[in-house]
Amino acid sequence: MLVDFGQASLWVSLASITFNPTFWNIAAQREYHTKWITKLCGNDPQRGCYAIAVTIFVLGLIRDMLFNHALAQQPQMALLDTHFVKLVAACLVGSGMTLVLSSTYMLGITGTFLGDYFGILMDARVTGFPFNVLDNPMYVGSTLSFIGVSLWHARPAGLLVAAYVWLVYHIALQFEGPFTSMIYAKRNAEPTVAKRKKL
Predict the structure, then answer these.
(1) pTM, whole model, 2 decimals?
(2) Angle (CA) 46 176 14, round 5°
(3) N-term to C-term CA, the chain
(4) Which tens digits make up the pLDDT trace of 168-188?
(5) Structural contact between residues 142 and 163, judged by C-beta atoms closer than 8 angstroms
């Protein structure tokens, strides 16, 4: 058996993966329309953005913890338990982390964590690495990390989870992309709106 679907930890991990982007999309879009997070943070959009950034970061840590716990309870595959596969896994994790960290560096905290929804807008589209290589480097990097960790531990179930991660991100982008485009289209129609500097 390559995947033990009877393990509750697998389904909890999948639920966490589903919950995170669902949460931040709903929370951010509600913020854009009602400023509910900003109001909770003393009418300070910068503080509100940092609050959701911390929340998303913590949820990500919980997701990763649940994934690793689920992985430990899944069967190993001898074919994947080789030095070559571990080398590939390390390269994938390294590449994934490079994409995630370089994206965060280029965007800054507010650019990374939904600052657009708080009215903290970029001056211009970021075109440097890794955005000159990929349209959504953070999501690609995260998925590569899931694949790498799964291969490192020789767990086929992890590869299934990684595929689900990419599917969830792909669905999330169907909401995030058009909404973000709408925000900037509205900003461009109102040139007096203040623009952000990269932190």
Answers:
(1) 0.90
(2) 100
(3) 49
(4) 999 999 999 899 989 988 888
(5) no
